[in-house]
Amino acid sequence: MAPSLLAPARRMGLALAAGLVLFSALAVAHDAISVGDMSVGQIEEELQNCPLVESLNEHKRAAAPQTASLTSKIFSILFPGSPAVNAILATIYISGPPNFLLALCPPNIDPSSLSVMVAFAVGGLLGDTIFHLLPEIFLGEDSPDHVRFVMVEPNRNLLLGLGIMVGFFTFVAMDKTLRIATGGAGHDHSHAHANNDDHKPTSTTTGASPQPSTSLKQRKPASNNNTTTPQPTDDDEKEINPSVKLGGYLNLIADFTHNITDGLAMSSSFYASPTIGATTTVAVFFHEIPHEVGDFALLIQSGFSKRKAMGAQFVTAIGAFLGTFIGIAVQELGGNSSSAAVTDSSLPSSGLLGTSLTWGDMLLPFTAGTFLYVGTVSVIPELLETGKDKRTEIKKTIVQFLAVMVGAGIMLVISWD
Q1: 279 φψ region: left (φ > 0), alpha (ψ -120 to 50), beta (else)
Q2: Distance between CA atoms of 169 and 75, rounded to whole angstroms?
């Protein structure tokens, strides 16, 4: 009886063992087949379960500082919300204070006197681009809780590089178009060239050279008899010079377009990481101060009153909010690889041209390209201008280089771990 009773139990045990073996084999086969379809986020999650990686994570958490740095505390107060809310707050920060500072600027300010501030802004922009944006674009943001791995996708890197080039040449096209429309005066940030060019047309009329001198000689006797004629004469000279006024309006259009890219920079950087967003905000803020003052001076030279020039600058600031909302819409609707990796297991096949990228991931490379143009082609030629006094120019160059180093150093210190 005993052997007969044990027979069913043996059969059941053998069946369970065979089932476990079959289930394990199917699981292994399933993993082997589906590993190519896993997203980057899923692969990252599986790697975190590796014993060696878990040990690295424990070491990283143990070595991490227990208290947050001062800059982290300040940024947490300035940017307390979601990426969308923080991007809007950042746009307010970069648009409001620089424009309100225009009330303190005298109408006859010389834009060329802003060279040191422009050099400081160049250091900030290039520092943010080289220290923050480019590493974030190609490598991603570090995590405070665990180690991260970078999977190299050649086509992905090519598309990111293409986005940088598109951003760079977008500003090339905009600057070239403005130069053609204004007859050679581009949209620089200290407007030193525009300042020099604008003084020439405002002091003479558009006729031949003998005619203006004759008219000026005829006005001198009249000015002795009537003291009210010189002021209308200056106004008439501004009125009869449409090219200068056209340059002012075209500069407003270029400034509006430039502010749109600033808004895109705010949204794309905060959706990348809070640190990138905060450092980009600081860089753009210091860049906007000489930018807005230079535009303000150019509008004054174009015939605008101080109040109208300030009002026009506030209108162009709408472009920054427009760019921010466009960037938020692209990020929310188009998504980005970091947010969609966990929810979409077929991301490599649904990304751009078979990569893990989405349209939202292309905003940050575009921003980096625009920053590279503004920090190099658009501004550095103004810093390279020199005068005849060698001693003065050497001192000026040293001060400018120190300003660049300070601007870049601030960007380095902010994000230093």
Answers
A1: alpha
A2: 32
The Cα 300–Cα 248 span in angstroms is 9
403: confidence class by pLDDT, cuts 50, 70, 90: very high
Distance CA 166, CA 158 (A): 12
Distance CA(151)–CA(28), nearest Å, equals 23
Average pLDDT over residues 222-246: 49
Q: Is 293 strand, coil or helix?
A: helix
The HSE-up count of residue 304 (CA atoms within 13 Å, CB side) is 23
Say whether pLDDT at 210 is over 50: no
Element (H, E) at 282: helix 274-301
Q: How is residue 331 annotated by DSSP?
A: I
Buried b (16+ CB within 10 A) or exposed e, 238-255: beebeebbebbebbbbbb
Please answer whether residues 243 and 198 qualify as being in contact, where contact means their C-beta atoms are separated by less than 8 angstroms. no
For the cut 80, the answer to whether the pLDDT of residue 330 exceeds it is: yes
Q: pLDDT digit string (tens) for 142-196?
A: 777 778 777 787 788 999 999 999 999 998 998 888 888 777 655 555 444 444 4
Residue 409 clears pLDDT 50, i.e. is over it: yes
Contact yes or no for 316/255 (Cβ under 8 A):
yes
- State phi, psi for 67 to the nearest 5 degrees: -115, 145
**Whole-number Å distance between alpha carbons of 73 and 414:** 12
Burial group, residue 384, by CB count within 10 angstroms (0-12, 13-18, 19+): exposed
Whether residue 315 is predicted with pLDDT greater than 60 in this model: the reply is yes
Please give the Cα distance from 113 to 51 (Å, whole number).
60
Cβ–Cβ < 8 Å for 205, 215: yes
The span from the CA of 349 to the CA of 363, in Å, is 21
Domain boundaries, the chain: 45-204+236-415
Give the torsion through C-alpha atoms of 67, 70, 75, 76, to 10 deg: 30
The answer to whether residues 155 and 352 touch, using CB atoms and an 8 Å cutoff, is no
Q: From the CB of residue 155, how many other CB atoms can be counted at a distance below 10 Å?
A: 14
pTM, rounded to two decimals? 0.69
Rounded to a whole number of angstroms, the distance between the first and last alpha carbons of the chain is 76
Q: Poorest-confidence range of 7-11, 53-57, 216-220, 393-397?
A: 216-220
